[in-house]
Amino acid sequence: MAQAQAQAVAAPSAFVASPPKRADARRNYEAILVAAHAAFSRDGTHASLEDIARTAGVSIATLYRHFPSRGILVDALIRESLGRLTARAAELSGAARPIQALREWVEDAVAHASLFRGLTTLLHAAYYAEGSPGYESCQAMHAAALRLLKRAQAAGQVKPSVTAEELWAIILSSAWIRETSPMEHDQSRIVLRFALDGITSSPQM
């Protein structure tokens, strides 16, 4: 199922959802995203669209007017999440301790990437699927993360051989553990700590 979802995200779409200009339409658009976020976190990406519309306080016709398919709705959530990560990286780019800024951003990225079951597979697909709705957002996030990484490397706090792509692999691996593990058996923080200690010039923990 995750494979099929990934293929859906990777396939280029002629329609890319974007916030409407009219205030009332924008409110509906944002309410649908909030409701979808909660539903997907609880039930995965196959959550009922009718329930999402009902929670958002709109008709199913309104939902489909903004998001003509389930895949387009998922893509919109992915792009919104990646946009927040990109903005967060920019906020941290001037932090006094580059390694601490990088660690904080990676922890935020793991939290974003594990918001709902199957998201890590979708993000992995979007990262490499040029032409997909999420690709440009992934590349913007990649560039922002690279700046944090380069800054930590310039300070001698991260090994110079580490790449942004390897950092992304660490994020998705840790997020996959978090999204697939029962809360009482979640070892993602330990795995993430070991991975980050492994790329730093001197462990920070």
UniProtKB/TrEMBL annotation:
Gene Ontology molecular function, alphabetical: DNA-binding transcription factor activity; transcription cis-regulatory region binding
Identify the InterPro entries for this entry. Homeodomain-like_sf, HTH-type_TetR-like_transc_reg, HTH_TetR, Tet_transcr_reg_TetR-rel_C_sf, TetR_SbtR-like_C
DNA-binding region, residue range(s): 48-67
Q: Is the keyword Ligase in the record?
A: no
Specify the superkingdom.
Bacteria
Start and end residues of each HTH tetR-type domain: 26-85
Query: Which keywords describe this protein according to UniProt?
Result: DNA-binding, Transcription, Transcription regulation
Matching Gene3D superfamilies: Tetracycline Repressor, domain 2
Name of this chain's protein:
TetR/AcrR family transcriptional regulator
Q: Which organism is it from?
A: Frankia nepalensis
Instruction: Kindly list the organism's lineage.
Output: Bacteria, Bacillati, Actinomycetota, Actinomycetes, Frankiales
